[in-house]
Amino acid sequence: MELQQSDSVEGQFFSDHFMKIFFFMVVALCAFALALLPYLRPIVMTDIRIKNETGYQLRNIMVNGGAYGDLPIGGVSGYQKLPHAHDYASYEFVAVHGELRKEVRLFFDDNIGLIPLGKGRYSYVLRHAPWDMLDTENILYSVSDGD
Fold first, then answer.
1. Rounded distance between C-alpha atoms, residue 91 and residue 77, angstroms
2. What is the pTM of this model?
3. Can you give the chain as a three-state secondary structure string?
4. Fewer beta carbons below 10 Å: N end or C end of the chain?
């Protein structure tokens, strides 16, 4: 009889221990799923085009990883679908002014606090800046195209 009681206590200990581990694992899994929830939202694709209002010819335009090619002064590119488009964007291009060439790069490495543009059509406008300041200022802004 004593042996059975010992087995019963030992079995109860393992059963309680298993339940505590199981409960901990369920809570940890739920916490992990909640932490990932913001990243599991569907990716909203935004139609983005580029308008060149710099006053210079632009070559090899890249905006947020999208290649837009070359644009003449006053030129407008076609739309491309880009994920995670915001009011501000990273960009790079080569500006051409007569015989002069200037590589321009601006990279945003942090989108914290920026609200996505969402679904729709938008233009990223590259505005005019003096030649000597072209690579020191953020000259890009977004405009809703209303469709």
1. 15
2. 0.69
3. CHHHHHHHHHHHHHHHHHHHHHHHHHHHHHHHHHHHHHHHCCCCEEEEEEEEECCCEEEEEEECCEEEEEECCCCECCCEEEECCCCCCCEEEEEEECCEEEEEEECCCCCCCCCCCCCCEEEEEEECCCHHHCCCCCCEEEEECCC
4. N
